[in-house]
Amino acid sequence: MRAHGSQKYGDMPYVFHLDQVVELLQDYGEVAQVIGYLHDSVEDTSINIADIENEFGAFVAHCVSLVTDPPGPDRASRKTKTYARLATVKGEAEMALIVKAADRLANVRMCVKENNKKLLEVYRKEQPVFFQSAYRQGLCDEFWQELQQLLQ
C-alpha cells in the first residue's frame, strides 16, 4: 500500500481502491486479501514480482503476476495479453481470478457511483472477453452476477 505513495484513484488516495477490493475478498481468506492489496503494485509502482516473492512467497507472487497487465502500447493490447493468460489459469492459482473479478467489480462500482460513462463503456466492451477468460463456475459467482447487472 505504501508503494503507491501519493498515487490517486480518482480524487481519493489509491489505498481507497485497494481497500474496496480487499473488502470484497473478505470471504476468500487472508491470502486473497494480500493478493488484493498487491494486485496493482507491479503495474503502478517500482515493485516487481521478485520483490513480492521475497516478501510474500511464490504463490502470492504468481497470482499477482497473473493479474498484472504486461507493458504494451495501449489498453487493448495489454488486456488482450492479460485475458489470454487468465484463460489458462487452473487449480489453486484460480485465486488470481477471484482477485481480478473483485478488482473489476470495485472499478465498475466506482464508475457507476461517479457516473463515469466513458470508463463504464470501456468495461462494457471488454466484459465478454473478460468473462470468457476469467469466469469459472462456482468460483465467485456473486461478483460476476453483480458485474453483469451493473454493466447492462
Quickly give the CATH architecture.
Answer: Orthogonal Bundle
Category from helices, strands and their pairing: mainly alpha
Largest sheet: 2 strands, antiparallel
Mean pLDDT across every amino acid position: 93
Discrete helix count: 9
Task: Report the top-level CATH class.
Answer: Mainly Alpha
Number of E strands: 2
Low-confidence stretches: none
Overall geometric form: globular
Helix content: 55-70%
As laid out across the biggest beta sheet, the strand order is 1-2
N- to C-terminal separation?
A: 32 Å
> Could you spell the SSE succession in H and E letters?
EEHHHHHHHHH
CATH homologous superfamily (4th level) name: Hypothetical protein af1432
> Can you tell me the CATH topology?
Hypothetical protein af1432
Radius of gyration: 14 Å
Our estimate of the beta-strand percent is under 5%
| Integer count of domains | 1
Write the topology of this structure:
Blueprint: E1 8-9, E2 12-13, H1 15-24, H2 30-38, H3 41-44, H4 49-56, H5 58-67, H6 75-86, H7 95-113, H8 117-134, H9 141-151
Antiparallel strand pairs: 1-2
Helix pairs in contact: 1-2, 1-7, 2-5, 2-7, 4-5, 5-7, 6-8, 7-8, 7-9
Structure description:
The chain is an all-alpha fold. The protein has one domain (2-151): Hypothetical protein af1432 (Orthogonal Bundle). Helix content is 66%, strand content 3%. It is built from nine helices and two strands. Strands 1-2 form a two-stranded antiparallel sheet. The termini are far apart. The model has no long low-confidence stretch (mean pLDDT 93).
